[in-house]
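Note to self: keep these together.
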Amino acid sequence: MTHSADRARHPAFPMKRTCPFSPPEEYAKLRATEPVSRATLKVNGKPAWLVTTYEHVKQVLGDSRVSSNLKLPGYPHQFHIPEEMLRSVRLMLLSMDPPDHTAQRRMLIPEFTARRIKAMRPRIQEIVDERIDAMLAAGGPVDLVTALALSVPSLVICELLGVPYEDHAQFEEWSAVMMNHDAAPEEYGAAVQALDGYLDALVTSKEERSGDDLISRFIEKNRVEQVADHTDVVTMARLMLVGGHETTANMIALGVLALLEHPGQLDAVKADPDLLPRAVEELLRFFSISDSGAARVALEDIEVGGTVIRAGEGILPLNNSADHDEAVFPDPDTLNIHREEARSHLAFGYGIHQCIGANLARVELEVVYGTLFRRIPGLRLAAPLEELRFKDDAMVYGVYELPVTW
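Structure:
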């Protein structure tokens, strides 16, 4: 067995992608030679364990002896969070452990069942068609990020939560700061504080007068079951609002880019729309955009792949590395929409904290990809790939702008 004190060399994390369509090159080397390894976090110089194989990532994410609580010493933070803010922060669902996590998640699960999301599909289709209508009316070139990728999930999550969409530009700005690894502590803190202030007023209004939306329904259930207080509801709303548009928006843009750059794969989807669900799963696996979002800290000594991780040490189970593990996904760096094992990906995480909005994200991606390439079959990039700016500085990978024309 290997103990933490035996590690002499700590590479810096996060590691950058050298190709926008591939994970950092170091991941494959680590999977082959040191699947559980030490690294130094760039954000604060502290150590953390990197877990890189599919088997071991699933093991960590399913282990009750590790915690998601970001207030615990040793937790591998990815942002410059002011100490005073960390002490006073209210844990959100992703950062909770049972039983608090179990109680709140149980109240939210009915909002994201396959049946409920299926019922939302006609409205999602309307939103996508409206945005594509606007693109066609404006004429190319357009930035697909602002014209479609960001607006569709923002509209969907606003309607689901009961958040006025006319405020989207402001909360998207706060969200962008909160997702940026390089944001200064004061900037990060100010963005969180501003968004929470906005949502505090919104939640207060719904406590006084309920509507037909997720936040209102949660408040009504909570009057009976009492699993959360007012601040918990605000924090839950922040997680849903930011998570509900940020990840899907990035996947829409990246997926469109990947299909444009892999014309054989795109032609197959155009020829057989029944391939769309499998194509969505493969694109989710291929990018695994929230690579280090499942940070953990060990509550007691655990053994992973023959390595002992001590109580109080931080762990980063890297789902992007796991989803490119050759032992599970043959030829993993090749985009293959016919890949049968694609749905086994860990892009939505694993275990009790698996993304609660996975069903919604899948439907949004299916509708966007299917509708876009059906209605604008001649879609193409309006700028060279090498000129695009990718979000190497963000918690959720993506592309800042995607100029397209037709």
